[in-house]
Design goal:
By secondary structure, the chain is α/β, with parallel strands linked by helices. It has one domain: TIM Barrel (Alpha-Beta Barrel). It is 38% helix and 15% strand. Helix 8 runs parallel beside helix 9 and helix 10 runs parallel beside helix 11. The longest helix has 19 residues. It is globular, with a radius of gyration of 17 Å. Bound molecules: 1,3-dihydroxyacetonephosphate. The site of 1,3-dihydroxyacetonephosphate has 14 residues, from strand 8.
């Protein structure tokens, strides 16, 4: 079973020039059956020791597959995470899953406040904050997602939106062990559209500045990853942008070859 807490371990090599170890994370969303463990096995087989020494690799399958994926990834560098959690540890919340339950299965990360949860399940920034606290309570690393909609972007409000989402969502005293930030512009998710490298650089720099204000010295160790139509063909360009510490990958994480092609941006 992987060690508790998904954040970067001190002293590992493969750090970016900023000293942060890249994270390439796959979000399978509502896709996959038990046969999908073949993807984990293929990713495991395709990750060279050299690449695995440079980056953290994470797959977040549907909760039904966490247990089988943890087994398939056992003894490999691949961590397994959840896509959502309930903020409370247990109770009368039919259909919900707590951070403790995810950790019990061997998950070490959990995605918090993905835009699809915000849009389809009415998740608020305060709710995201409570869930991030829940993740920390159970020893999981919460990947807190922020991102503007197309309309907000068109109104020139992208920075205001993501900074506010970050400020409310992130728990006090966040550390690199319990927190990753993912910038996912809503309009770039599943559309094949991506911001320009200059636009990504501007948002990530702004989020990093905000992180500095919110958590002080530890901010420099917290990773900010990018998500939204990351593919093997654009990964090198997008992941090469300053202050981009990895990727949160949807569609391209469902096919091992495509996901490995993204990881290879760090080869
Ligand atoms: P796509 O990579 O399919 O655009 O999805 C991004 C995403 O939402 C990851 O969480």
């Amino acid at each position: 079973m992987p060690a508790r807490g998904g954040g970067p371990a001190a002293g590992q090599d493969g750090m970016t020039s900023a000293g942060r170890r890249p994270l390439v994370a796959g979000n399978w969303k509502m896709n996959g059956t038990r046969a999908s463990t073949a993807v984990i096995e293929a990713v495991r087989g395709g990750l060279t020791p050299d690449l695995a020494s440079r980056i953290d690799v994470l797959i977040c399958p549907p909760s039904t597959l966490i247990s089988t994926c943890v087994q398939a990834a056992e003894g490999s560098p691949i961590a397994i995470g959840g896509q959502n959690l309930h903020a409370k540890p247990s109770g009368a919340f039919t259909g919900s899953i707590s951070a403790e339950m995810l950790a019990d299965l061997g998950a070490t990360y959990v995605i918090v406040g993905h835009s699809e949860r915000r849009a389809y399940h009415h998740e608020t920034d305060d709710g995201v904050h409570a869930k991030a606290l829940g993740a920390r309570r159970a020893g999981l690393c919460g990947i807190i997602c922020v991102g503007e909609t197309k309309e907000e972007g068109d109104q020139g409000r992208a920075l205001d939106i993501v900074r506010a989402q970050l400020a409310i969502g992130i728990p006090k005293g966040a550390t690199a062990r319990d927190t990753v930030i993912a910038y996912e512009p809503v309009w770039a998710i599943g559309t094949g559209l991506t911001p320009t490298p200059a636009d990504i650089a501007e948002v990530h720099a702004s989020l990093r500045e905000m992180l500095d204000k919110l958590v002080g010295e530890e901010a420099g160790r917290i990773r900010i990853i990018y998500g939204g139509s990351v593919k093997a063909g654009n990964a090198r360009q997008l992941l090469g942008v300053e202050n981009v510490d990895g990727a949160l990958v949807g569609g391209a994480s469902l096919v091992a070859e495509d996901f490995l092609g993204i990881c290879a941006a760090y080869a």
